[in-house]
Amino acid sequence: MTAPHVSLPDDPTHLPGLPGPDPVLSPITGWARAHWEALADRLLDGLLPYASPGFAQYRLPGPPSHSGPWSDGLEGFARSFLLAALRIAGSDGRVGPALIERYAAGLAAGTDPCHPEHWPPITDRAQPMVEAASIAIALHESRPWLWDHLDDRVRGQVADWLGGFVGADVNDSNWRLFQVISEEFLASVGAPHSRTEIDAGLARLDDWYRGGGWYTDGDGRKFDYYNAWALHLYPVLWQRIAGPRADEATVARHRARLREFLAVHQHFFGSDGAPVHQGRSLTYRFATTAPLWAGVLADATPLPPGRTRRLASGALKHFAEHGVPDERGLLTLGWYRPFLPVTQRYSGPASPYWASKAFLGLLLPADHPVWTATEEPAPVDKEDVCLALPAPGWLLHSTSADGIVRLVNHGSDRLPPPPATADDSPHYARFAYSSATAPETPETTPGPDNHIALLTPDGTPSPRGRIHPLGASGSRAASWHRALGHRIETVSVVRGPWEVRVHRLDVPPGTRVREGGWAVADDLAPPVARTGPGRAWARGADGLTSAIIGLYGWGDAEGRVVPALGANAVGHHSATPVLELGDGARLLVTLVVLSADPHALRAGASASVAADGTVEIRFPDGTRERVAPRLSDAPEPAPGPAPEGRS
């Protein structure tokens, strides 16, 4: 397949001064190092109107986090300081002196307990722990231009503030690595620290490793982008701070895992650069590219240099073309436009600046191959891919015809271990996610998209709840869950743009069942809908189409399309095709399709059931697959602690 056409405008209205495309060096995205530097500068300049007089806090507009404005102001400093440090180090200090001076001033004011702009202290399980790690990384990477020029009083203040980590209680999640990073920086400057706490944090990371490059973020099945922008990233940054103090075997283990992860992570970006929309903290947006750069920094990547840059630049360009940053140069709480349902209680106005991690590539010199090699296509640019990921219980399938990546979820629910319970999150509970869509996020009941629900007499849909994985291999994955006390076992089989779901339900007669396909969204107009017996589809103005077709057990179920306003991160108008059955069957087979390729919607799919319960599936292209009768019950996970962190 030929490389996608470069479509970046020379000077988007919200990014004045952005260089024109470089079609020779970057024939796919048009972006080169100069684009990254220009966007970093735009982001840093956009923050200036919101700086406190002493530059210790950045108070951005928007609703405060649950930690309050004082902590949020620190967050604005810390996360933007990380970006500033990467920009400073990446240019060997050849930036305007005002950039260095204002962060030096902010450090002096923020760590002075008598200054009116001083930072909240680091205390047990408090948000300043998160921000301390960004400050420690920034101090290390910009050391020759900033730390080395601070006077002894300020260096002492900084060490005292970071020293709040020593002996503190830390959330048992990716937060353990914030302690590792901060105390390793203290060790690097001869300040008090605990080597025991550093080693314990790194050892805890080993406890969460599930193989194949995948960590769970704490106990439970918590698989998402924290695997990328935290659990793989911080060990690389820790090693850069630790230098010869780092244990060689530990470093080698982290590098091997990162290399294995990046072989998979490269598949999570659509041909337009959009990351798959799944998990929490999605407002960090292009931070998903951070491990791509980390792999190069640590000599732990299987990807050629031109592909690394194509993936990273593709993601940055994608958001830039969708209005990120906004006309003020700010990163807002949202995905494209401001959209609070992609946030969490800990999200404050400056939280999106964790996206600064995406700029780690600036630490690589301008003559490094990752910046000088000609861009190479990503996997989705060249061929269809089907990839089973057993550790998180996922199937990933992408199609080069439309450049869309789809992720089928049979294993990540972000629930604490039993017997603890928690509410469903739309960013974990769905059967599927993609690079072209976002889940519906209504305020009350679960959205209909990519979900099978039993309906109560008043029409309330059941949540998915805890996901019990039954395996992922080849082109299929399976799991079971309980809905209103009844077991539903689902096997997903994928082929190109198609997914067939085989549901076996233990439900009494008269149970109402509803299943939805993908939600498509558009900012300007509602998607076009079409319905019929046993089928429904919705199509956006860009041609992206979601369809659902009942292949077996749906009888005379009438298809319909459920519209929504303001419930989707991709667009204000959204719609989901659904099937609803008034008297639930014990076996349902459903075809769901998401594609911008009109050929994907051709007819020809079917399903039949043998006497022993085996389901034979025929995909629209004629490919046949068999799904065996009900799988064996999986044992319940063992009870365990359920601490919850945040970042």
Describe the 3D structure.
An eight-stranded antiparallel beta sheet has the order 8-9-10-11-19-16-15-14, with no helix packed on it. Strands 7, 12, 13, 17 and 18 form a five-stranded antiparallel beta sheet that branches. The protein has a four-stranded antiparallel beta sheet with strand order 3-4-5-6. It contains 14 helices and 22 strands. A hairpin with a 5-residue loop joins strand 20 and strand 21. With 647 residues, the protein is of the alpha+beta class. It is globular and about 80 Å long. Helix content is 26%, strand content 19%. The longest helix has 22 residues, at 69-90. 58% of the residues are buried.
